[in-house]
Amino acid sequence: MNMNILNKDNSVLNNFIYEIRDENIQKDSLRFRTNLERIGQLMAFELSKTLKFKTIEVKTPLGISPVNIIDEQIVIASILRAGLPLHNGFLSVFDKAENAFVSAYRKYIDSVHFDIHVEYISAPNTKDKTLILCDPMLATGGSMERSYKALLSHGEPKSVHIVSIIATQQAIEHLQKTMPMDKTILWLAAVDEKLNNHAYIVPGIGDAGDLAFGEKID
């Protein structure tokens, strides 16, 4: 599995990561959502460099110019609900992409242990297309794995780009074991140290869904 960790290089991306982490700045839900979208736009730009392109000719008012454009059918898929702002960032870049949504969530058995449940999926045909699967936090990797397998019911994609803002090494290792290694590329903004007893990323940011859309009743 190819892996890209984008905060290893200094860029404006790190400013947005700082703002979604800061416990005071992140209290502004509009700013938090906007920063997730901005990070999505920057990650989409980096991802676009690896896609297949073709050359076409475009007629301008003064002549003809060759232009290289993306030559892939893209499906952007997100895990509800936290993935929506990141999804919007990618969609603003890949504006002709098709869209898919998966409801995957933790159902707790007790205060520590949980199972991953998938209850809803809305997706186009994904067969032989480029699938970009987004979720801002990659804690254990379980939700991402289950969401990918649920999407397979709509067709096996040609390639899979897994996109997350913050991941743990545990999640990376889980996906290396469970995803198709020959066609999966992992895009991460940052990798954090560990999980706590409730499987939240440390230092992380907290609950991305709650920060973006308000606290929920479990």
Can you give a write-up of this model?
By secondary structure, this protein is α/β, with parallel strands linked by helices. The chain has a single domain, classed as Rossmann fold. 30% of the residues lie in helices and 35% in strands. It has 6 helices and 12 strands. Strands 1, 4, 5, 6, 7, 8, 9 and 10 form an 8-stranded mixed beta sheet that branches. It has a two-stranded antiparallel sheet with strand order 2-3. Helix 1 (13-21) runs antiparallel to helix 2 and helix 2 (29-48) crosses helix 3 (84-93). The chain is globular, with a radius of gyration of 18 Å. It starts with a strand and ends in a 5-residue tail after the last helix. The mean pLDDT is 92.
